[in-house]
Amino acid sequence: MKRILIIAGEASSDMHAANLIKEISALDKDISFFGLGGGNMQKAGVNLHNNIVRLAFIGPGGLFKHYLKLRKIYNNLCVYIEKNRPDCAILIDYAEFNLRIAKKLKALNVPIIYYISPQVWAWGLWRIKTIRRLVDKMLVFFRFEETLYKNHSVDVDFIGHPLLDTVKVDSDKEDIIVKFGINKDSKIVGILPGSREGEIKNILPIMLESAKLLVSKKPALKIDLLLPLAATADKNFVEYQVEKSGLHVKIIQNDTYDAIAVCDCAMVASGTATLETALLEVPMAIIYKANFLTYILTKNLIKLPYIGLVNIVAGRRLIPEFLQYEAMPDK
């Protein structure tokens, strides 16, 4: 039986990895998977050595926080693959970890497929040389990524974005309103603060204060607040923040697309959720605030005029972005 190592370090990557595993398994039953990821991958049949989605981070600040844990996980995996060489490796985003493990895999002559490119086009063009040296095949979701890699002589294929197949709702808005117990006459405002611990701590308070201002300034308007929560997020922490705000917010976990689709508008943390919200045709504002260390270390590395994927793909500002010091409730 062929054995594939697969690594995904974030909630959205874990979801994409699980779907990929299901498709591969349907084509060839004589393949087994092991690696690092999250609950979706485990449910899809991966022999999960560690759940690293729980350690998901953004930028150097997050890396420093979890460095010792990730270092131990990395060392243990290296020892394992030396003794149990995989037939192939599929690495998904998560550049800080995956490009390091790619060096080890290359030394062991393991073919490497990179599924979901790191966002080198935004802040890490210097990494393309490393990718060209280590990765046998890059599979990308966006045409502009294909062009970028081809221009740097990387073996790349454009495969389209899987969200086009997975982002859908099967119920009418009226049925979803009944399911969630929302007043049918309300205007529904979505709050999507991200899936990583650091993101939620930095962004959720801003979103809640913004919602409080909206409710206070529009007393004649019936507003219901809905918070679709990632399965990997700490619900207890989110509930604490909501309670502290004094707002009534309905938290929906594990029913994300219905929860987004029913909204009249939404505040969305930059990331995959912006694409999901756009595909569900919900108007939004993009909000993002990193911790101070990450902001200082990365602000000069980011070369694009936008950070929202919808704006990047469109090549123009379709969605308003409120970033770092512009991410203020009164904005």
From TrEMBL:
Provide the alphabetized UniProt keywords. Glycosyltransferase, Lipid A biosynthesis, Lipid biosynthesis, Lipid metabolism, Transferase
Please provide, alphabetically and separated by semicolons, the GO molecular function terms listed in this UniProt record.
Answer: lipid-A-disaccharide synthase activity; phospholipid binding
What's an example GO BP annotation here? lipid A biosynthetic process
Annotated EC? 2.4.1.182
Q: Which reaction does it catalyse?
A: a lipid X + a UDP-2-N,3-O-bis[(3R)-3-hydroxyacyl]-alpha-D-glucosamine = a lipid A disaccharide + UDP + H(+)
**What Pfam families is this protein classified in?**
LpxB (PF02684)
Gene Ontology CC annotations of this record: membrane
Q: What does this protein do?
A: Condensation of UDP-2,3-diacylglucosamine and 2,3-diacylglucosamine-1-phosphate to form lipid A disaccharide, a precursor of lipid A, a phosphorylated glycolipid that anchors the lipopolysaccharide to the outer membrane of the cell.
**Mind telling me what this protein is named?**
Lipid-A-disaccharide synthase
